[in-house]
Amino acid sequence: MDMTVSFAGLTLDNPIITASGTFGYGVEYMRFGDLGRLGAMVVKGLSLEPRRGNLMPRIAETPAGMLNAIGLQNIGAREFVEKRLPALPWAKTPVIANLYACEAEEFGELAAYLAAQEGIAALEVNISCPNVSEGGILFGQDPRLAARVTEAVKRRAGSKPVIVKLTPNVTDIAAMARAAQDAGADALSLINTLSGMAVDARTRRPRLANVVGGLSGPAIKPVALRCVWQVCQAVKIPVIGIGGIASAEDVLEFILVGATAVQVGTANFIRPDAAFRLVDELPALCATLGVESWDAYRGSLKA
Amino acid sequence: MTVRRLTRLGAGGAQGDFFELALDFPGAEGSAWGKWRPGQFVMVRPEGFGMDPLMGRPFSIARADEEHGVCVLFQVVGRGTAKLAALRPGDRVTMWGPLGNAFAARPGVPTLLLAGGIGIAPFLEYVKRHSASADLRLIFGHRPPLDCYPFAEMAALAACEAHRETCPDDLQAFIALLGEVIPQYCPDGLILACGPLPFLRTVGRVAGEAGGRAQLSLENRMACGVGACLGCVTEHKEHGPLSVCARGPVFWSDEISL
Asked: Fewer CB within 10 Å: N-end or C-end of chain B?
């Protein structure tokens, strides 16, 4: 079967994309597999200036999941473009820049800079980070703010596709999806982490310095599937599924409910070759289950 | 990767359960394992973890060659290490490494190794590789009995002394010993330390006061082990938060704030 998927002007060899915040700047994983075999890579969220992130401890393990409150520590967009991007096989595997800013106009400025780089194929707008005090998730919880950020990015992104990443920490994710679509988003990606916390009964202290953090990993897959399914009913633009994907069967489940591609996140921490293994395993599972084309299989859930 | 051997160190029970875990050696030919150095570590995740616990666990490499396999030492302290202690030969394990940087090695330079508890692990191979140096000295602080650690094996190769802590006075005496010995290696000797954070803080402080610096191996909680998750950072005075897994785990004491 042809594994190729196309959306928002991008063509991917396969639907496996690595998720922002879980694959570093790509170069960290070069020793574990050929980056050129991935469908695409979304790199660690970038801001205009470098960010130091939150205090330690920043991660905590939970059953089938992990909590993080990294706080968008990153080297800044310029250093990424100058020092990391040239090392990536961007001519073979699309590199998607995930971007974060505190204000809509700053989002636009960042988008203009990143979109101008030849090695960046698309922009993913992070309006859903639960771990920063300024902006962050608020953009993703108010349809008007989400639309304003989307418009600001779209206006400055030139011909580069704009993907808006949605948070599940809302009452009606379909409403957020429609707001982003109406504001010009070319695609949506969901879900980001679920807000959560972990505490220690013995020390009576939170396990994260930030007290609350974002829950990811297989524990959130049912929530992610529900969100993707709901959003796919509500919008016409392509949807990228994210949330607890760790096996080829997980990939097919997200495509079954309507996703065009998927992002693999926490699984990269469980084993560093996780995304590469999914690329290897997907064709055989498709053959086993009688999946003959993505177009026929996508959204074919018998609900 | 499969488990080759799991060997209990010491009697176990009330004093704690200590093990040496040996995994298949990936082969030195053409791989990073041919040039691994003491201080580097591996991430180990038994397939038996299932989804809980989710993450692999970082361990210093105690030794790694065709004869012994890739060996790590561990003490059972939580759910992950409890599951590791239940491994059997042939069990499947995901292991990635060697990861991180390593301790400095300077033949001919007086070198002081300071190990606290299970922090002795990276020094097993260090002592073996430097046994020709008459200037090598290891000071080991521990609470469980000495046979919970591969101390005798090291003592046969270099000047090693052990100090057991059984009461608060022992701890004070050990700190006083560090205050006496570390300055002898300052400013030009090599001081290498691995152990609990308060121990490392003491080593760094004493070295600094004596006009020297020490290399400290940090043991922060990690998820990925490769510098991607940014969950294990330490504060570097010049560069801000740095990943312990990718930029360490060994840092010069005067470059970081603990």
From this structure: C
